[in-house]
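User: I'm new to structure prediction. If I give you an amino acid sequence, what do you actually give back? Let's try with this one:
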Amino acid sequence: MPIPSKPAVLNRFRWKLADLQPGSAPVPAPFNLRPAGEQELDFAVRVVQASYDLDPDWSGCAKHIIKTILPGLRRSFEGEATCLFVLHGNRVIAASAYDPEPADGIHLVTGPCVFIEYRNRGIGGALLHATLEALRARGLTEAVGLARPGTPSAKFFCSKFGGQQLVAPVPVVQPSGAETAVAA
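Assistant: Good question. You get back a string of structure tokens that encode the predicted 3D arrangement of the chain. For your 184 residues, that looks like this:
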């Protein structure tokens, strides 16, 4: 029997990109950072899906992931891909999709997603920093993302690089199934 999906409630965070220090969070060795290619959507989906599916902090939010995060990720690969990868050798171990012109105002489409076995090594922080730098390089002065309240991301990660919580938590997938935002 499937586990019921509960409504996702998320905190909104904002980063002032002018305050971002270039190169202040390098990807740790032996990992490498690179932009995703236009034909690499499958690698990104694999990392993002596994990252959310295996994270106990996202347990029960399958509806939100299927209805908002994965379609947002797919849109990131239409035309020029706006996604960054971290690799260990040739294996994609982390991904972060972003949208420089989001209709919903959320720039961090997926947030930094890292395979569970590679977490707690500085990869997620480096990937967040690189994503914010990519948005600044496209002319943005601030970026917005979402995180689930009470998770390590909301407590510690989103405050990195000057991130500030903007509003109280809000549901992003309404009971009617209408989408209102994408998670980061």
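You can read the tokens as a compact description of the fold. Here is one thing that stands out. Residues 174-184 have pLDDT under 50 and may be disordered.
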